[in-house]
Amino acid sequence: MDVKTGFFYFFSIVLLFAAFRVITARNPVYAVLYLVLAFFQASALWLLLKAEFLAIVLVLVYVGAVMVLFLFVVMMLDIKTDGVRAGFWNHFPLAALVGVFIALEMAAVLLGGFRGSEAPHASAVLGQATAELSNTRELGKILYTQYLYPLEIAAAILLVAMIAAIALTLRQRKDSKRVNPSEQVRVKAGDRMEVIKMAPTQVAAFAAAVAVTPDGNGENKA
């Protein structure tokens, strides 16, 4: 067994362990940290397959942005695990059935793909070696030529999901100060300032109170 194969088995074992701990950890923060570890191991496997672009994207997008956001949200929410796990065993049979069904579907797809694949011809291998193909360039060509419409559909679905998530979680609070921009645009000068007519001079409140109180002789100055 060479060094590359040894690294492959090492990263795979750690990836499986981290994925198992994601669904078995009682603390949500630990589950998120194990998921970060699983993403790092998957990125290392991509590097072994010479897919550097996918490995870097996995680390930057998922570990650097998405999982950090998940970690902050989980830590700020302070989720109580006791209430969440109250009905775990009641829903376990249905969850296990769905999990087995998904695993069988994935196995059928992967086994069918492996059986249909053939080893490349020697001429094709030599041609690719001499051309020095870039996996990032080839991935971009495939995405924006052969899979252009599925990519646009996926982008539209993600946009709709983002708008729907914002609309579902948006709540109007009574104690928050919110200004309607349309009202600001239509406002006039008379609405912002009101001129009140007042007398040129007025008696101060303290002086008026002293004037109406009786003095020491029992006489009223007013």
In terms of topology, how is this protein built?
Blueprint: H1 3-24, H2 28-48, H3 52-77, H4 81-84, H5 88-116, H6 122-131, H7 135-146, H8 148-169, H9 181-186, H10 189-192, H11 205-212
Provide a quick synopsis of the model:
The protein has helices at 3-24, 28-48, 52-77, 81-84, 88-116, 122-131, 135-146, 148-169, 181-186, 189-192, 205-212. By secondary structure, the protein is an all-alpha fold. Among the domains are: 1-80, Four Helix Bundle (Hemerythrin (Met), subunit A) (Up-down Bundle), CATH 1.20.120; 130-168.
CATH fold-level topology of the domain at 1-80: Four Helix Bundle (Hemerythrin (Met), subunit A)
State the total count of DSSP E strands. 0
- Beta strand %: under 5%
Give the integer mean of the pLDDT values: 77
Could you say which overall geometry the principal axes of the C-alpha atoms support?
A: elongated
Low-confidence stretches: 122-128
Using only CA atoms, what is the Rg?
35 Å
Q: Which architecture of the domain at 1-80 does the CATH hierarchy give at level 2? A: Up-down Bundle
**Main sheet attributes: strand count, strand direction, barrel closure:** none
What is the ordering of alpha helices and beta strands? HHHHHHHHHHH
User: N-to-C terminal Cα separation, in Å?
Assistant: 112 Å
CATH superfamily of the domain at 1-80: NADH-ubiquinone/plastoquinone oxidoreductase chain 6, subunit NuoJ
- Structural class per helix/strand content? mainly alpha
So what's the CATH class of the domain at 1-80?
A: Mainly Alpha
| Secondary structure tally, helices | 11
Summarize the amount of helix as a percent range. over 70%
